[in-house]
Task: inverse folding
């Protein structure tokens, strides 16, 4: 068994440590020497690339185009939108100088005090301000609308406590920024993009998510409404996985972006923004993986199928090589990514453990005896079930198995979420349940005061008011005040 | 005629102004409010995305994997490699603080003086230092080599004089960083990647480039050898379009990256790095475009074919719509991107000028008379030639035409370069020719002194010593000292 695997902490022992170790051991990412910044390693980046590719296609189908805006934002822009500055100004990386020079002793470099910027520049924590400052020149009439633009970029927020993928100072993301002629259209767009995120999570990440609306307290700084997709991790904690914001006219007013509407009146433009980030990697890892390592959904796995030969001598290896070649070719012709690992400097057992750790969905093992029997050993990573099947039509079998695994891990995650979602009506019950984890559907009186008091007392936050929450009369657990629907409480990452 | 087009400066009047205007009028990019930084607009970004996609595939075929390293680099890293710091330290954006706070009057934000970093961070001008600092932990044995990694990223160099795409403070690029067990392997890799750039330029950008070696004076800061692809613009000036560096053991020594080689000895690792950037957009635009606007190679054009209907009434439009639908479907099934522009708020003449400005390679125009005659009008953007051809098999015709255009603009650019490449043997001739532009093949005595003197006197630099430069004895034009081969001199962007 590979050393890396043997050392992996079990989820039941320490879920948090299991995650931290797994990210590093599976070669996904590692901390860098720059505080709070990570290095995304090739295997981790390959998964992120697949996510990007699928999301990008989904965005484009909705009419969105990509563009690129500057990394640096003049400091004064941040304070143009009153609530935005409160949310972002505190955690910024600030560029104050534009030149270094040799130190007097010549051995190092120092900041050149003469190269001080007149106005400091901020590394974007998000790009609403610089983008709306640009949109002012792009929009003058309703004919210029809607403007549907997305950017793939790095952003920076000076986080004090960081964790690989889940919370890092620098992270990679996409941020969509759309401009519309009416409030209705902008609101509809915000929800449309939320649904794109939901569909991506379901269909590619095999991640069941709840869609909902954030409370005023949890809104994006500058938004009138924030929509969210919330996922449940295996420890019952929530992970906010993507948000979509209806911004009203806040940024248009802050940056003076007006247009002539079709009634020939001047009005401010209506806006949305929406984003998902490398945080999705954290959600993916935490949702499906187990004590043996990663479990990846086939649709996002860099290697979908690995084939390992078992042999005693060169002659047997040649025989296996010959048998495997057409299988590899056939699978690749179906767009399935296959690795045939016949490297002879590692034993099969080591390879098995390593590919388990890396979450390769399907493993095929072929030896001399299999060839004699016209069979092959198949293992599916999600359940670790092994099966010996006929070589005839093995490619169809594998293709179906990949679909099965994709669906299977979604169903498993959904089942977990359902089994850990509870309706709670009393404060006693709530306090007890929140310690055990899970989503709690409870009544809430709608005030920020109560929300914050519950957070103080239990560390639970309102994750969202679900989009499909049925009307139901009830009373707040804590205050006894009336409530018209249940919201989701949980502890969260 | 579209206003934008009418206003475009002619190349013969002012080539430089023509370029600046074209980039903005064709909606490729625009200056941002942040000094030296550009906004890449959707149409420009769509071209860059296609470049990225093709390059990325070509890199992966050579075994390269993508990864991601931090945006910020500790200041001290820059001075670890002696020549590197000289090349990059002067033009850096320096992060000194990590927090803003409200100003005393509450109306704006100011830098929090208490949030000063112990060590300043630099926005990466290039990533050798942070990457080699990371490689130290990834490499211990020859079995870990070669390490072949690429990063798509933004970088920042505080340029004083900027031009859209050609020289901007922030730009997008890829940077490959490979590590090898032997000098020979690293050198071969540097040349392999240079050839990838050459092939990409030729086959996708339709850009004939000369491959060569830079003189010591023009090397990348920290390299033992810099290879380059040099293109000629229509004004006869050179544009360095991509570079590949053999770094020897310089960065391994600076960051203490050692490995156990296959003879069980400890040695420093050998390195390459190589990059192309959004500067390629500048090369693309300047090489092929004309006084009517952009000319794009079909393989990188976001829209390859535009179809414009000509009609007098709704009935005619419906007839054209019906005729066009199967053509669009057929072309798309071949992977050709087609736009059918039947918007009725713009006249055909406006559309024609606009798509010419945007460089759409093929324009089809269909009207009632064409349908009666079973014909269609075809215009190719590169030559502006119009032809009326039969509708039968129009899709084959268009597919062939796209190939013709791709090859045609390459041939045209190559012919221009050949007609503007001169062998020059005397200093008088050189001074005269350099004023007229073009590549000058001349003898050079191999010294930095002579190279710099020629630059001072004529603004011409040695672009490269061509890879295929034949041995030829001669004497330096200026000093009369012996030379063994001709090098390429030119003025450059």
Result:
């Amino acid at each position: 068994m590979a050393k890396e695997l043997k050392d992996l902490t079990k989820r039941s022992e320490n879920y948090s440590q299991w995650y931290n170790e797994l990210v590093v051991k599976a070669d996904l990412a590692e901390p860098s020497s720059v505080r709070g910044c990570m290095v995304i390693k090739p295997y981790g980046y390959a998964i992120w690339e697949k996510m990007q590719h699928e999301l990008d296609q989904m965005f484009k189908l909705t009419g969105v185009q990509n563009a690129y805006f500057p990394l640096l934002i003049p400091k004064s822009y941040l304070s143009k939108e009153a609530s935005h500055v409160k949310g972002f100004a505190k955690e910024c990386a600030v560029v104050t100088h534009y030149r270094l020079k040799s130190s007097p002793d010549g051995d190092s470099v120092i900041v050149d005090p003469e190269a001080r910027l007149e106005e400091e520049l901020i590394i974007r924590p998000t790009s609403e301000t610089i983008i709306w400052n640009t949109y002012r020149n792009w929009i003058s009439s309703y004919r210029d609308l809607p403007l549907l633009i997305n950017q793939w970029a790095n952003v920076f927020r000076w986080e004090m406590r960081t964790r690989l993928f889940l919370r890092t100072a620098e992270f990679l993301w996409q941020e969509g920024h759309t401009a519309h002629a009416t409030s209705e259209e902008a609101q509809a767009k915000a929800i449309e993009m939320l649904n794109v995120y939901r569909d991506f999570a379901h269909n590619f990440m095999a991640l069941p998510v709840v869609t909902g609306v954030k409370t005023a307290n949890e809104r994006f700084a500058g938004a009138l409404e924030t929509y969210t997709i919330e996922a449940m991790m295996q420890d019952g904690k929530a992970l906010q996985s993507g948000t979509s914001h209806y911004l009203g006219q806040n940024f248009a007013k802050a940056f003076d972006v007006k247009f002539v509407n079709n009634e020939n009146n001047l009005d401010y433009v209506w806006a949305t923004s929406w984003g998902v980030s490398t945080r999705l990697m954290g959600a993916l890892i935490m949702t499906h993986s187990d004590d043996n390592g990663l479990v990846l959904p086939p649709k996002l796995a860099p290697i979908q199928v690995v084939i390992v030969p078992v042999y005693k001598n060169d002659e047997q290896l040649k025989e296996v090589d010959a048998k495997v070649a057409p299988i590899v070719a056939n699978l690749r012709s179906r767009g399935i990514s296959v690795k045939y690992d016949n490297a002879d400097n590692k034993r099969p057992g080591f390879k098995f453990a390593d590919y388990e750790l890396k979450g390769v969905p399907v493993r095929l093992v072929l030896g001399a005896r299999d060839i004699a029997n016209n069979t092959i050993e198949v293992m599916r990573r999600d359940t670790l079930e092994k099966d010996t099947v006929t070589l005839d039509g093995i490619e169809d079998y594998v293709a179906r198995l990949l679909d099965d695994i994709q669906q299977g891990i979604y169903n498993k995650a959904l089942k977990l979420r359902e089994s850990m979602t509870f309706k709670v009506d009393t404060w006693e019950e709530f306090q007890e349940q929140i310690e055990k984890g899970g989503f709690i559907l409870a009544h809430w009186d709608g005030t920020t005061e109560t929300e914050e008091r519950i957070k103080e007392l239990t560390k639970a936050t309102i994750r969202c008011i679900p989009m499909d929450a049925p009307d139901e009369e009830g009373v707040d657990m804590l205050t006894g005040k009336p409530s018209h629907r249940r919201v989701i409480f949980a502890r969260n990452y």
